Amino acid sequence: MNKLTFLKSDRSNIQLVLIIGLFLITISIFDVFLNSFFKINLISFLPSKISFIFPLVIGMMGFHLIRIEYSGNRYIDTLNKNINTSTFNAFLTLLILFLILKAIPPSLSWMILDANISGDSKDACTGSGACWTYIKVWFRRFMYGMYPNEQHWRINTAFLLVIGLGTFGLFATEKMKKFLALYYVVIYPILAFLIIYYLISGGYFGLEWIETGAWGGLSLTFIVSFFCLIFCFPLGMLLALGRRSSLPAVRYISIGYIEFWRGVPLITVLFMSSVMFPMFLPEDFFMDKLVRVIIAITLFEGAYCAEVIRGGLQSLPRGQYDAAKSLGMGYWKMHIFVILPQALKLVIPGICNTFLALVKDTPLIFVVGLAELAGMLALAKTNPKWLGFAMEGYIFASIIFWIICYAMSKYSYNLEEKYKTER
Amino acid sequence: MKFRILAYFFFLLGVTDLTIKIFYGNIFSRFTEDYYEIANPILVFTPVLFFSLGGVFLKESRVSMSLENFGTTRIKYYSPQFICLAVVVLIFLFFTFNAQINMENRGIDFGFDFLAQESSFDMQFSLMDYDGQDPYWWAYVVALLNTLLVAVLGIIFCTIIGVVVGVARLSPNFLIRNTAAWYVEFFRNIPLLLQIFFWYYAALRALPLPQDASPLFGVTYLTIKGYYMPAFIWNNLNVFMYSILAAIISIVFIRYYAIKLRDTQGKQIPVFYISLIILIILPLLTFLFGGVSLNFEIPVLKQLSATSFIYDGGIALPPELIALTLALSLYTATFVAECVRAGIQGIGKGQKEAASSLGLTANQVLKLVIMPQALRIIIPPTTNQYLNLTKNSSLAAAIAYPDLVLVFAGTALMQTGRAIEIVSITMLTYLSISLAIAALMNWYNKLIEIKEK
């Protein structure tokens, strides 16, 4: 088939063709707009099957008309270059535009216009839209779990302190910079553990003891993923070194460990922590459920961490090892002073991605009965006073997780770009 | 040489051990019954140990002594290894010792004989016939099949969506490019468990009841109780299958012949169209001459009680399966899309230009130059994603889809109380799936890697 040329312009009627094309596109979009926003059907006089594809046909014709190289209008050229390169592209463009136009009114009215947020019981939700009252009433539960309301400041303070200690590296002077690695790998985890243990768990300094069963909500997500990260990092480092070791026994133990944990799903690991750990420990030795879960996830993530760090170790040129050896350094001296400082800097983005995966995996602790955000949602969903708001709950949780994860992925991406240029 | 003999020795030992264990039970347990009960749990896993030792020695036999080992003393070489091994063995002994005591206290004994007992629980959905009278090992097989079903469905859909989105991310069209990018950013950054919950508890619950459902494509019904499709009822299905087999074999021969023709005489024949025609015509002929016929069993609305309706007949996909497949494929597709994009972007522009300057058509450029190279970059990370999908399918337990974790590590564990045996079987199953796919991957990578002269 020859190309469609019968509607193409030549120099004389270019203005007219452009105007007709733009007019047709406007009509098609306007029709869909009216249809979805005001439920007015401009072309209701046509048979229903035609009126369904009418805007598409009109729009395609319009796009076909304005597809002219060097039309003389800057805006139309940009349009052509970006969304109108071929008939197929024009078709997809129109489909996406119509989809957006069709999707906006129902979602807008569900989420905002017809939604309720006032009041504090189910009866306040009279509109046909979402019931944000539910989120408002349950907000503290979603954030802090069953932790007593008047004690929430303890969680907040602990988090602020931990974050504050974490930013310490930004203010360190040149003299202190030497000890930063030591601080972050050894001192900071211990301090953070002490803060969280004494402040959130309590039992000392006149603070009420609150058992871990009451912890929950989003704060539990942070606690679990934070601890798993700081514990799995050293573990991963040792495993990565072990996997690159020249001693066969050490190497195969590391390989076996890494491949084993990478080959099983996290959910079975959590099952293991809840039913197998108690079997493996001495009779009268009690270990808290939360601690068991943290140990299980640490063992699991340690394997992933090891692979990331191994990537960093492998990317170092061999000359670094040779140079260190020629200076007479032993294995540990070489790794601590020459290899690891360089390799760890390279793997920060990778570690960030591992951490991201870890945060996304923490809702799974719900299967062993820890009421993290997803668990709290399941709890709230079955509350007889608040039946039927699953949608709102999951959308709320999705938005929160999305913000956290998106920010982290952007951060890790930026880091990646930064280190890429440095090397 | 020494290592290789050792390796074969261990493999042989493993096979013998496994055979004995399968046919005669744990032979060691007779000797250890009274004296070394503590060793029982370890002895069950001896075949695994033998096989891995064999693998280690086989690997070692291929690697010559590396340079690093020269110049180290014997003590420096052996003592760290000895300490590591000792620590690992001690940890294992400690665990087994505790497990032994704990199991004794609770009155549980160790062993896999429970697998032959009657399972006495029911499964909502299964591919094979299953009811409560069947033994536990059959429940395991059925549950494993359910897991594999979700995995295969998820892999198919995530590949389709992933490839489309990955290509769309490189589109010259501004809107398409950004829609694809936002799709990836959106679905990648929400935990999979939340997505599964969303589809199962929120989205699919909004579907109509069976009595209110209007037909989709005429004969299928999407309702809150699942998706009902017509079932195929074949006459002489085996004849039809043989015809497909024959078609595939003839296509292989035609391909072979076409390559030979191209290499010797430079002639091109349209292999694709010929194969397509054969694939359609041969099975069609069986309908005319082979006595093959096809009927449909269309689901019919049936009233169970005053308000409860259900569709009878046909194939019913439960909502758990739909929610799981949707969530898994939408989530994994984002990662597949990124792999596809990286693969296509990884091919230099010069390749395309060079190929076109040789006079290849646009299709040939894509098929003969770009794709073979892009696939080399795309396939390894994509297989990794497939593996992740298979492992993630274990989240089925959260919405009560009867997969391996729910049925075996959930229900069967509750009923028998055999925590160690059941959890280790479950983990070993996933582990062997992972290792098998990884081995396949390595083999494939070797096959397609650039052969440098």
List keywords for this structure.
heterodimer; A: 423 residues; mainly alpha; MetI-like fold; 71% helix; extended; B: 453 residues; three-stranded antiparallel β-sheet; two-stranded antiparallel sheet; 7 strands; globular
**Rg for CA atoms of chain A:** 30 Å
Oligomeric state of shown chains: heterodimer
- CATH class (first level) name of the largest domain in chain A: Mainly Alpha
Uncertain stretches of chain B? 32-36, 66-70
Largest interface: A-B, 60 and 63 residues
Derived from helix and strand composition plus strand pairing, the structural class of chain B reads mainly alpha
How many separate helices of chain B?
Answer: 15
- Distance between the amino and carboxyl termini of chain B: 29 Å
The SSE order of chain A reads: HHHHHHHHHHHHHHHH
Q: Please, what is the CATH homologous superfamily of the largest domain in chain B?
A: MetI-like
Supply the helix-strand structural class of chain A.
mainly alpha
Main sheet makeup of chain B: 3 strands, antiparallel
CATH superfamily of the largest domain in chain A: MetI-like
The whole-number mean of residue pLDDT values of chain B reads 80
What is the name of the CATH architecture of the largest domain in chain B?
Orthogonal Bundle
- Our estimate of the beta-strand percent of chain B is 5-15%
